[in-house]
Design brief:
Order of helices and strands: HHHEEHHEHEHHH
Strand order of the largest sheet: 1-2-4-3
Number of domains: 1
Radius of gyration: 17 Å
Number of strands: 4
Shape: globular
Strand content: 5-15%
Largest sheet: 4 strands, antiparallel
Oligomer: single chain
């Protein structure tokens, strides 16, 4: 029975499938293309967050960054017991987090694609921050794929643990949007790099997605090709 609600794990499947197909077909160049696509995708997310913050008159600081994130854990991830679990190690001057559970990591592991997870997670969050404000420093020194938990550090965030920012629910997007975004951006990037061979690689990812989750869900991914993910 195919799941009709898009979740974090569908999103992770798309990333893992791109990594697998690209490295199978293009080896080291495939991994480099995957990293570049991850960075581009993430920078677009961060840029949208920045646009909303500027419109609202908010500074492009880490406090604002946390409030303007575009996703929250899905009920499906909570029900499955793989929703994000984050422990704050410090709040000021640096906001350091230990992430001990993650639906993306769960999906990468189920697919035997921990290497893809390490590469993706090393680049995605710090690239979102760069898209939001390139002057901010965000580090991901450790991944749970090798060490059991992730470490992420927002340098000089200077947060107050008693007054942590809450996400604006009106800016949160569903995972149909996020899955459509990652598929479109990765497809565009690998096609730009590898031409017809890249286009064929993207088509293979879509085929695998449809095989696992159904053609209806694959059609939703394609429906987002007309969306401009650079702007709000």
């Amino acid at each position: 029975m195919f799941v009709k609600e898009f979740t974090e794990k569908h999103h992770a499947f798309i990333a893992a499938a791109f990594y697998e197909v690209l490295t199978e077909r293009f080896q080291d160049r495939g991994e480099a293309a995957f990293i570049h696509a991850t960075q581009r995708y993430a920078e677009q997310r961060g840029a949208r967050m920045a646009q909303r913050a500027i419109r609202d008159g908010q500074p492009l600081a880490f406090k604002t960054y946390l409030a303007y994130g575009e996703w929250v854990s899905t009920q499906a991830a909570k029900d499955e017991g793989c929703a994000n679990q984050v422990e704050a190690v410090s709040f000021s001057p640096d906001f350091e987090m230990k992430i001990t559970r993650c639906p993306w990591a769960a999906q990468f592991k189920e697919m035997g694609m921990q290497r893809a997870g390490t590469v993706y997670c090393t680049h995605v969050d710090r690239s979102i921050v760069r898209g939001f404000n390139p002057d901010l420093v965000y580090e991901v020194p450790q991944s749970m794929h090798e060490h059991g938990y992730c470490i992420q550090i927002a340098r000089n965030a200077n947060l107050d643990k008693n007054r942590m920012p809450q996400k604006h629910p009106e800016y949160v997007r569903g995972f149909d949007y996020h899955c459509g975004h990652i598929y479109k951006t990765f497809s565009s990037v690998v096609t730009a790099i590898f031409g017809a061979e890249g286009q064929a690689a993207a088509a293979e990812v879509l085929r695998r997605f449809a095989q696992n989750y159904g053609q209806d869900m694959a059609d939703v991914l394609v429906s987002y090709f007309d969306e401009d993910f650079d702007i709000i």
